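I wish you would study the pair of lines that follows with an eye to the fold:

===
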Amino acid sequence: MSGRHLGVSWPLDSGRKPIRIVKSDKLSLGNLMIDYSALRAVAMVVQTGSFEKAARALSVTPSAISQRVKHLEERLGAVLIERGTPCTATEKGDWLCRHIEQVGMLERELLAELPGLSGSENSAQRVTLHIATNADSLGTWFLNAISHFSTASDYLFNIAVDDQDHTAEWLQRGRVVAAVTSLPKPVQGCRLTPLGTLRYRATASPDFITRYFPDGVTRDAIAKAPALTFNQKDRLQDRWVRSVLGTDMTCPTHWLPSTQAFVDASLSGMGWGMNPVQLVGEHLKAGRLVELIPDTALDIPLFWQVNRLAADRLAGLTQTVLTTARRELAPLPQK
């Protein structure tokens, strides 16, 4: 559906006058008026990154898009889009985008039950699901889950990558409808499903071990050996050092914001890093990589959180994510 609804008026003398059907792009509930053409303009600008691309996607002029967005911003008294290259949503803009996302899910559901509504005027646009996950999940198991789900669904995906300790913040700010997170408590307004444990091992090449750890992993040695760090939010290396040495250490580091680059840099002898077992298992068996200290895995529990308003309509996605996670992740520890 394009966002139009049927406004029905019942005259008092309904026995003599016909019911009047009025098409509108605005939903009126008492004094509340939601202009869905303006909301869709905001969402499309955010999705495409520019007013011009949004105009092409909605088959209107850039001026029309600009006017709709400006009018809505003036009415709400808030900036919804940060103008730039690309254009991005403000916090309030994100909430409106998630609302449109949920409306799109409802439209899909309605058209599935009432296919007679389908047509050039009422055809539903494909819904883009905004989801946050950590890079290592995306690089090991999560892509398998959404790929499998997409083969039987017409949903599109917009995947945001952040540290597993911070993806829940995307839910809290309304920027995504679901997230893979290490947060074991449900975000307000979300449903939580335990997934499993992503297991990491501290690995490096044999030459690197010989060069920096001839006498084993000591405090002096770890303080000189270059580590690999994803970004400033990445604390996995610090947590592993604390768990095996019992203290916090400051290590020299290479900054590499790529899951596969971590593995490649470890293989090349550039540094040591915390790598998911799914990506380094064969390298460890073949001797191309070595654990800094054998059998000292670092386990990161993961959970799936989804907005309650969308949870029922995304039950199939949740089931696919859960099935894939249980197949590819280690079990969560029993309490």
